[in-house]
Amino acid sequence: MIIVLKPNPDQKQLEALKKWLCEQNLTVHDSLGVNNTVLGLVGDTTAVDTEMLRAMSIVQDVQRVQEPYKCANRKMHQTDTVIDVGGVKIGGGTFQIMAGPCSIESQEQISEIAVAVKAAGASILRGGAFKPRTSPYAFQGLREKGLEMLINASRQAGMPVVTEIMDISQLPYFEDVDVIQVGARNMQNFELLKELGKTDKPILLKRGFSATLTELLMSAEYIMAGGNEKVILCERGIRTFATDTRNTLDLSAIPLLRRMTHLPIIVDPSHGTGIRSLVKPMALASAIIGADGLMVEVHNHPEKAWCDGQQSITPETFADVAKCVRDVLPYRCREEIE
Amino acid sequence: MIIVLKPNPDQKQLEALKKWLCEQNLTVHDSLGVNNTVLGLVGDTTAVDTEMLRAMSIVQDVQRVQEPYKCANRKMHQTDTVIDVGGVKIGGGTFQIMAGPCSIESQEQISEIAVAVKAAGASILRGGAFKPRTSPYAFQGLREKGLEMLINASRQAGMPVVTEIMDISQLPYFEDVDVIQVGARNMQNFELLKELGKTDKPILLKRGFSATLTELLMSAEYIMAGGNEKVILCERGIRTFATDTRNTLDLSAIPLLRRMTHLPIIVDPSHGTGIRSLVKPMALASAIIGADGLMVEVHNHPEKAWCDGQQSITPETFADVAKCVRDVLPYRCREEIE
Amino acid sequence: MIIVLKPNPDQKQLEALKKWLCEQNLTVHDSLGVNNTVLGLVGDTTAVDTEMLRAMSIVQDVQRVQEPYKCANRKMHQTDTVIDVGGVKIGGGTFQIMAGPCSIESQEQISEIAVAVKAAGASILRGGAFKPRTSPYAFQGLREKGLEMLINASRQAGMPVVTEIMDISQLPYFEDVDVIQVGARNMQNFELLKELGKTDKPILLKRGFSATLTELLMSAEYIMAGGNEKVILCERGIRTFATDTRNTLDLSAIPLLRRMTHLPIIVDPSHGTGIRSLVKPMALASAIIGADGLMVEVHNHPEKAWCDGQQSITPETFADVAKCVRDVLPYRCREEIE
Amino acid sequence: MIIVLKPNPDQKQLEALKKWLCEQNLTVHDSLGVNNTVLGLVGDTTAVDTEMLRAMSIVQDVQRVQEPYKCANRKMHQTDTVIDVGGVKIGGGTFQIMAGPCSIESQEQISEIAVAVKAAGASILRGGAFKPRTSPYAFQGLREKGLEMLINASRQAGMPVVTEIMDISQLPYFEDVDVIQVGARNMQNFELLKELGKTDKPILLKRGFSATLTELLMSAEYIMAGGNEKVILCERGIRTFATDTRNTLDLSAIPLLRRMTHLPIIVDPSHGTGIRSLVKPMALASAIIGADGLMVEVHNHPEKAWCDGQQSITPETFADVAKCVRDVLPYRCREEIE
């Protein structure tokens, strides 16, 4: 960490600052310039609060040299983390597709889709039981009953499931769920993250609408610091001025995250664009760019879907997407990133 | 609501769509153009899912004419809502200042600040006990103990308090809290909003980092639809490419919100800028533009603050801000907005 | 075009509006609802100023159904436009790579790079002579002399060139230039666009930092309306809150633009990310997603480049990128987009 | 400037870097840490290209301590710059209002508005002759003829004028223009800025849609480095995800710019919001926050305006705005900013 002091800092305050830094087990190196003094800190600065330093009247700027995340940091864990989800391995060079409807609507619906997406190449079934909807008047999901249907469907089809949790109080219902999803709106629901850190379930953590990559990793760190290292990251689009798509899918995040962390990273092209016809091109781009998998919304009757039908594709289209993705996998860009 | 159909829509699908719309108690008006047919819907469209309509293959676009929020809508409730917080009235032409530290650090600290900000003109004491921090390694607040200190301080100073809740499970601790704050990161924590809708406490709802004004009002609607109409909105800056400030304080939101809703709207210039020296100018601008109040971070020793010291001002500076704000109140822009 | 009127519009103003619309050769269809009247306009609304309509006190909202661009519109010109650049065909299923240094620094430098990128698979040589730099104190390009060196190098290597124009007054120097580039900062330099519309040179038009896709096409329309239909579009990243990369490369723009327009679309992964190690993954993603080509910065000594060295790759790396791109071309997603 | 090196840098490269830095007349201070070496540079780093440094393989990061602008820097010029426009002083504590129509439409129109806005308190007449319009099919301004009408109107009314230039080639027509405006789309039209730097006319430089404050000042620096120090800055809204307003007016830019530069700063609430009813509240907020003036669109018949009528106010409304602004001026926040 580097602290740039303002010109002519008060010497008493400077001594107090240095003393405090030493008490944090940091070694301080001075660099005296003509206008500004620069302090270089050596040691573990993860727990140093840059806000507090910036608040000091003698400090002009503070810059981290080390990343503020440890458990999630590639530097601390060189090899890719591989997460086993009921026999399905995520990370480390595999490519897994999670597919299913936005909302679980009935046993028939989810069971039918489960069979169809498995046949087409999906390895994990997705489906929403607890649904975060912008409007209180919109369908809020079948909740516990939906979870039951999802698990029934998964057993029939023989594939693990991923589904979203919205609040700590719902955790007891997730016992038979294989992967617990934290949605974009909850990426910084820190109490929920801490609680999930105490479980041993794999967690699918979606990037918030306006989260930086470091913030995403700090949220993963909340889960990991609690003891649960099974975190799967998911890029699902960010909010920008560009509104031709619902969100702007930030594909450069994939190679950047692979350099920053050892955790697996998947892409959700359905929410990331909000447009059915963009799912295939963005899925192919995600595969080629080195993602560890996809999450895709599939509905047997997208036009009758209870939510997000506009971005759902049919099982037939999904089969085509999955096949084309498999075709490009041998050409994936997964080499070492400096 | 207006539905623009694609050219030459399939007639069977069109009939099915019209039938379904009629079943929703909506009257459908056709407008036949050369290229596109437009359907105009008359009736209460609040519960109509525009996503579902857009997913239909014959539909090109859907546009709301009515707002999707009812309880919060100015059209349904012409006069300003006034919320009574232990005798302090918020809304309807008053101007209230909430002030206090980012974090409660000790009984002495919060008690000393409480007395100071009250003397300087604050009418409500703020202070964080449960703290949402980006890093799991940063100070997370004194939690229950902090709440106790806050309430002690408020009783000594004789002023009501506002403090943030982070999870439903903390609700029992908030019995003596006067206003419950929902932070920007939780603006779309819908389960929490629903639960708060069942209480009769005033709720201070902060705008999310990347929330539109309609989304903010839909979140207010979650609380109000549950029966709790005491919602105070708070503009606290949005995330943009402009990083000279921590966030970009969107002051045009104030007059826009006043037109859209009858709920009181306050501004947080401390989080909205993240820079101490901007608190005063942005506070004055908020007052003149017609806000119903302010929320300001005040710390007796900003340089030793356990969080967000960079944006905290001293009680002395706060007294100056409060005085200057009072001076401009007679010139406030509160006239009718078309 | 649809005009939503406010409730109970003044009848005189409404009659005046309808009369004016009829004078614009538009047919007006009324749709009377309970709260709002909606006018549907039939005819060519390209020249109707939506701003003027929105300014009327009886108008609540105006929505275009037809796109405001004609020459660039895919609906008016179903087949892909193919642009011939000295025998190199851009568009219609080909894939062309433009490569070369950010700045031309010397005859030796540009000649050496030209030979290297041609050998590696580039079909067009790029190189900056007039350089838009944020600082007036930074190197501004070799200007006319640079253009001469570029053209010399291109003749030696036997490949056409593309280079940026910054002002109309520079046009005389561009006589021997094969493709004239308009940079992101000049995307809405309308006087320059009009002037380029009078030439018969292919124009490479880069998307502005904060331009929507419709704005990009309107700028293409400026050139095309002047008679020059040879416009190549270029996605090069947009400005968002996400600053891990210099810009956020918006790859979803490629399939969206292919649906909106018949013009060829290329991607610049060098400026789009600003990071050397991201050039290859983003180049592969661009190819697979259906772009018509790439523009890549290549420098024989990136560490000594006079500008943008951080995003330049070596000829050796470029050869690897070009090879990998060729490998994935058979799997490109170029099918019909609804 | 601070250069953070990667761990274990190649010693030869490090020596070469240090040698080169010394050749730039910079003194280099080493700070050796456990993981990273940090170089502190002392001297004038304005012309040092941070891009080039970042491109070096041994460099991890580069951070400026000094600002990259000199002429515009408050540190180099402590007192406010005051610009005299035909006797009207801008900057240094005055408050000037520029008002007039978006477009000049006829001699009668501009003359009538000139008289009206002068009577209401405007000191400078604005009016567009060369109009940057997104669509080539929209009205492009009366151009030279419009300029003549503007100057006639200004002489009749006895007030100086400001109007926009779009291209260097138009400069000869601006001989009688008092202030030349550079629009947001041209903020980085560097060739135009350089040419304006050779004139002795005051330049009104509008912030680009997605420009940082440093970029705005670097564009001012282009003009000033050429010898013309008469630059007036103008905040006019930035492009964000928030689309309730046309742009997001960034009022925190005013106190920030006052700290960074000695140049006067005005606000354009008309373009900054795009909504008529927001002009007054944002004008009052701009005045109270410490701006040096306003630019406001006024039209005698906003509903018949040829462009941007939606954001134009009538002379009557303008008179009310100007009066209310005058009322709050005694309470302006113009004190020293740390």
Automatic annotation (TrEMBL), chains A, B, C, D:
Q: Give the record's GO biological process terms.
A: aromatic amino acid family biosynthetic process
- What residue ranges carry the coiled-coil annotation? none
Query: EC number(s)?
Result: 2.5.1.54
Gene3D superfamilies in the record, alphabetically? Aldolase class I, Phospho-2-dehydro-3-deoxyheptonate aldolase, domain 1
Record SUPFAM superfamilies: Aldolase
Q: What class of enzyme is it?
A: transferase
UniProt entry tagged with the keyword Transferase = yes
Q: Which GO terms describe its molecular function?
A: 3-deoxy-7-phosphoheptulonate synthase activity; aldehyde-lyase activity
User: What are the DAHP synthetase I/KDSA domain coordinates in residue numbering?
Assistant: 83-325
Ranges where the DAHP synthase ferredoxin-like domain occurs:
1-67
Q: Which InterPro entries match?
A: Aldolase_TIM, Class-I_DAHP_synthase, DAHP1/KDSA, DAHP_snth_FXD, DAHP_syn_2
Give the UniProt keywords, A-Z: Transferase
- Matches recorded under PANTHER family: PHOSPHO-2-DEHYDRO-3-DEOXYHEPTONATE ALDOLASE, PROTEIN AROA(G)
Record protein name field: 3-deoxy-7-phosphoheptulonate synthase
The scientific name of the source species is Oscillibacter hominis
